[in-house]
Design brief:
Keywords: Metal-binding
Family: Belongs to the GTP cyclohydrolase I type 2/NIF3 family.
Oligomer: single chain
Helix content: 25-40%
CATH class of the largest domain: Alpha Beta
Number of strands: 11
Shape: globular
InterPro entries: DUF34/NIF3 (IPR002678), DUF34/NIF3_sf (IPR036069)
Protein name: GTP cyclohydrolase 1 type 2 homolog
Strand order of the largest sheet: 5-6-8-9-10-7
Strand content: 25-35%
CATH superfamily of the largest domain: NIF3 (NGG1p interacting factor 3)-like
Order of helices and strands: HEEHEHEHHEEHEEHEHEHE
Number of helices: 9
Pfam family, one: DUF34_NIF3
CATH topology of the largest domain: Udp-n-acetylmuramoylalanyl-d-glutamate--2,6- Diaminopimelate Ligase, Chain: A, domain 1
Number of domains: 2
Radius of gyration: 19 Å
């Protein structure tokens, strides 16, 4: 099969035009018109992930985070990012990225995160737009199966997302909570939407220092487990693609990256 066959099916699930305006989703490097035999899902495309793909004879990388957020100003191969691009081209590896379109998709990133927390009565958090006669939202909000305190739930999040540490922003860590909002990635600016939906706690990554002050002043508890919890996409995309692989008889191999691309280590 050709790369375009996978992309066309995926874009029925998460069309590019439900991405945030200006988000560089879609084809990143290579050609969608060449035959593919082995696909690898990943959160990030980093040099070590590219080496993993080469070692595993992967010819198509499907990533959540775009490779080329910032266009290259030159092709100086002493720059690691440029060297990575050159290696991908040399080994004829196509790279495709689905970022905020996967975040906004029904059944996509934020639904996967809500499911990991076992939330019920899940609804959209922050309205983005209506397209295809459907409302699309960034983030999700739902109910815990049982009440917990903020601090207890923060520790539960560490276990669920398999992380050694997180940041807690709360004036009331012993307060009982039931309603939870979550938005994968850098979602600090959406915390007012969590308040408007009456969430007791909001989970998102990369909370800015001064935004943290504002959250405290507004009285909402926020759990920042980091951006890397979106690595849940690796297994979920693997599962989704394997379903389509069988359904459409694509006959390709699909693997998920085993590389941890979280740049932060808790010590």
């Amino acid at each position: 099969m050709k790369g375009i066959d996978l992309v066309k099916r995926f874009e029925q699930f998460a069309p590019k035009d439900i991405a945030v305006k200006g988000d560089p989703v879609g084809l990143q490097i290579g050609s969608l018109n060449k035959d593919i035999n082995k696909v690898m899902t990943t959160l990030d495309v980093r040099p070590e992930v590219v080496d993993e793909a080469i070692n595993n004879h992967v010819d198509f990388i499907f990533a959540h985070h775009p490779v080329m957020f910032r266009p290259a100003k030159n092709l100086d191969l002493s720059i690691p990012q440029n060297a990575m691009y050159a290696k991908l081209i040399k080994h004829d590896i196509t790279v495709y990225a689905a970022h905020t379109n996967l975040d906004n998709a029904v059944g996509g990133m934020n639904d996967w995160l809500a499911s990991a927390l076992n939330l019920s009565d899940v609804q959209g958090l922050s309205f983005m737009f209506n397209k295809y006669d459907q409302d699309f939202y960034m983030g999700r909000v739902g109910e815990l199966t049982s009440e917990s305190t903020v601090i207890e739930f923060a520790n539960t999040c560490k276990k669920i997302f398999n992380i050694k540490g997180l940041r807690l922003i709360s004036n009331t860590p012993t307060k009982k909570i039931k309603k939870v909002a979550i938005l994968g990635g850098d979602g600090g600016k959406f915390y007012h939407d969590a308040m408007h939906k009456h969430a007791d706690v909001y989970i998102t990554g990369d909370v800015y220092y001064h935004t943290g002050h504002d959250m405290l002043a507004d009285g909402i508890s926020v759990i920042d487990p980091g951006h890397h919890i979106e690595s849940i996409c690796k297994k979920q995309l693997l599962k989704l693609f394997n379903t389509w692989n069988q359904q459409y008889n694509w006959g390709i191999d699909i693997v998920d990256s085993q590389i941890n691309t979280d740049p932060f280590t808790f010590i």
